[in-house]
Amino acid sequence: MEVNKISEKINSSPSCILLFSGKRKSGKDYITDIILERIKRENAVMLKISAPIKSYWAETHDLQFDDLMGAGEYKEKYRQDMIKWSEGVRRQNYGYFCEAAVKMFKAHEKPIWIVSDIRRKTDLKWFKENYGSAVKTIRVVADEGIRKQRGWIFTEGVDDAETECDLDDVLEWDWKIINNSNESELEKQIQDILSAIENIMHL
């Protein structure tokens, strides 16, 4: 992949960008899927920064893209190699995959963006530099025991790497979601976010 500026001139800007981060098995995908389902589909799009990485990896290594994007064990076989390769790309252009995801998912056709896999301070930086006050940040947190129940196993080179740890010392989030399998508590937290979106969008 040639690493250069992908940029096209932005014709329209989103009204609300929700940036979600959290540890593996914290429930980011589960929560973002719920929020996308609750918002009218014509108003929102789901972006995954990992999608351009996995798309390239699937094409160049004859792998199944859908399986790499899934939550199963398939992607875990290739996770460390994908991380190593993508870090080399980011060293040349820290916003490369953020911008690639915006293009890949045709995000500018929708006013609300849900980004389910923010992992680095540079991801936050890129979105805030380009979209300013439209950006809202959400940290999803789950107890380690709960994450283990969901299938998380500590993996050296993954769980102690930048992809999992770079945002650990970020303290300022617009929302912090506690996702410890308490459905009523989770529902209240999701409703708080949906209400804020409604106020922004006047839906």
TrEMBL record:
Gene3D superfamilies: P-loop containing nucleotide triphosphate hydrolases. One of its GO terms (cellular component) is cytosol. Substrate binds at residue 179. It is found in: Cytoplasm, Cytosol. It comes from Diploptera punctata. The keyword NAD does not apply. Pathway: Isoprenoid biosynthesis; isopentenyl diphosphate biosynthesis via mevalonate pathway; isopentenyl diphosphate from (R)-mevalonate: step 2/3. InterPro entries: P-loop_NTPase, Pmev_kin_anim. ATP binds at residues 23-29, 150, 189. Its main location: cytoplasm. This is Phosphomevalonate kinase. The keyword Iron does not apply. GO terms for molecular function: ATP binding; phosphomevalonate kinase activity. Keywords: ATP-binding, Cholesterol biosynthesis, Cholesterol metabolism, Cytoplasm, Kinase, Lipid biosynthesis, Lipid metabolism, Nucleotide-binding, Steroid biosynthesis, Steroid metabolism, Sterol biosynthesis, Sterol metabolism, Transferase.
